[in-house]
Amino acid sequence: EPEVTQTPSHQVTQMGQEVILRCVPISNHLYFYWYRQILGQKVEFLVSFYNNEISEKSEIFDDQFSVERPDGSNFTLKIRSTKLEDSAMYFCASSEGTGTGELFFGEGSRLTVL
Amino acid sequence: EDQVTQSPEALRLQEGESSSLNCSYTVSGLRGLFWYRQDPGKGPEFLFTLYSAGEEKEKERLKATLTKKESFLHITAPKPEDSATYLCAATVGAGNMLTFGGGTRLMVKP
Lengths: 114, 110
Description:
The structure holds two protein chains of two kinds. Chain A has a single domain (5-96), classed as Immunoglobulins (Immunoglobulin-like, Sandwich), CATH 2.60.40.10. Chain A contains no helices and eleven strands. Chain A has strands at residues 5-7, 10-13, 19-24, 31-37, 43-50, 53-57, 65-68, 75-79, 88-95, 104-105, 109-113. In chain A, strand 5 and strand 6 form a beta hairpin. Chain A starts with a strand and ends with a strand. In chain B, 35% of the residues are buried. The A-B interface holds A 4, 31, 33, 35, 41-45, 48, 55-56, 58, 91, 93, 95, 98-108 and B 31-32, 34, 41-46, 49, 87, 89, 91, 93-103.
């Protein structure tokens, strides 16, 4: 069964460093997303991406964050100058279409900022 | 502000003991209401989409229903493998920006 894969599964970084989280969405999907879940809190939307551009973003997704689809298979989330409060599980997701709510999530990348 | 609230936060059931999970929403112009299952250390797994009041969807021991203010996830004769966190989410626009509730952690004892 096709699945969304994410790397790394866990990353520890020092405050102020840059991190890149990587995702390989399901191959025939056209819409890509990043969500995050701070420990003990709700899953929160960060950004959606379609046709090589951001289609929606939340208030959380400020200039510290950026997304890119550098090639035909990878989808990345870059976090510049990490802060303690960026520690969370980051989930990548993909979908065939939009509006259906049927997203396929990866297993997540746990980011710990020290 | 769009809000999705789930109750209870945690629910312990004996195997075979049916129950319901609640998801109430206050969003301006609900487009869709979604249920996901999340196992520990994993990403959410899609279960159901509901679009209009009165709609019902079923899958094995799970049935999701929708009214104008809330949704219920009914679990009939649950088994230990149904233990997970069940998440409710809503969208208000054409996209897939899901607003999630806090989840209900279900534990089913054999």
